[in-house]
Each structure stands twice: as C-alpha cells, then as structure tokens.
C-alpha cells in the first residue's frame, strides 16, 4: 500500500470511521510473534525503506526512521520481556531520531527513549501501569 501511495497523484482521507475493530483476545494469533512473523515484518520493513530511498533518496529520512520505530513499537507493549531484546536489536539507527518526530506522542517517545537506553524496568512499569491497569479501566 505504501508503495502504491508514492505513485498516486492525490490521496483522500475519509474522516468517518467505516470499520470498527474491537480487540477481545490479547493472546490471539495476531498478537503472537513467531519467528516467521518477525522475519516477515523485518523483511517488509526493510523492503519499504529500501524502496523509498531508491525512489526519493534521503528526502524522507525522518519519516523512514519514524516508520521503523513504529514497526518495533509493539515489542515494548506486549508485556513479553524477551521482546525488549528484539526491540533493541532492530533498526538501532532509528533510535537517534526518537525525539525528532513531534507527531509521535510524548509518552511513546519517552518509552522508546527509555528502551534505547536499556532502561527496560521503566518500560515494563509503563506496560503494567498504562497498558494493563489504566487502559483496562478506561476501556471497560
């Protein structure tokens, strides 16, 4: 889809939600990261980054770093401590750009920065306080 958008003359946004997704099972297959899924995610991310660089050079560098950070963000909010290592190993060059993209929320940038410094105890605390407790109460 991203590749298609790069060739479009115009793109429109439909502001009305036409589809509503409700997450009911936190252990659903779509939330389980197998080695095959991780390999595919990493391959597809590199494929898009390489495509964009080939098409536009360094014009979209900040956005590409933000994209790679977005692709690894779920690893910090799964509650699986083993995924923190995957986060740290994937796209480490993007970590230098965590504070550069102001369109990303301050909370997410802070958690990513903590992870980039290896302060995973605070990332884990964020998971428990925000994801497990706050969101569970808010979205009951």
Describe the protein in words.
It contains six helices and no strands. Helix 2 runs antiparallel to helix 3 and helix 5 packs antiparallel against helix 6. The mean pLDDT is 89. The protein is mainly alpha-helical.
Short précis:
It is built from six helices and no strands. The chain is an all-alpha fold. α2 packs antiparallel against α3 and α5 runs antiparallel to α6.
- Quick check: average pLDDT? 89
Shape: globular
What's the end-to-end separation, in Å? 33 Å
Q: What is Rg? A: 17 Å
Describe how the helices and strands are arranged.
Layout: H1 2-7, H2 35-56, H3 61-72, H4 82-89, H5 106-116, H6 120-138
Helix pairs in contact: 2-3, 5-6
Features:
globular, 140 residues
């Amino acid at each position: 889809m991203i590749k298609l958008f790069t060739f479009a003359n115009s793109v429109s946004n439909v502001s009305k939600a036409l589809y509503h997704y409700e997450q009911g099972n936190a252990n659903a297959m779509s939330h389980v990261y197998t080695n095959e899924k991780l390999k595919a995610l990493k391959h597809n991310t590199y494929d898009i980054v390489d495509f964009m660089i080939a098409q536009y050079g360094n014009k979209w560098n900040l956005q590409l770093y933000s994209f790679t950070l977005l692709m690894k963000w779920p690893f910090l909010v799964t509650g699986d401590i083993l995924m923190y290592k995957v986060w740290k190993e994937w796209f480490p060059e993007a970590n230098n750009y965590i504070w550069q993209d102001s369109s990303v929320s301050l909370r997410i940038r802070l958690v990513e920065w903590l992870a980039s410094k290896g302060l995973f105890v605070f990332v884990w605390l964020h998971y428990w306080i925000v994801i497990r407790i706050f969101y569970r109460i808010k979205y009951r």
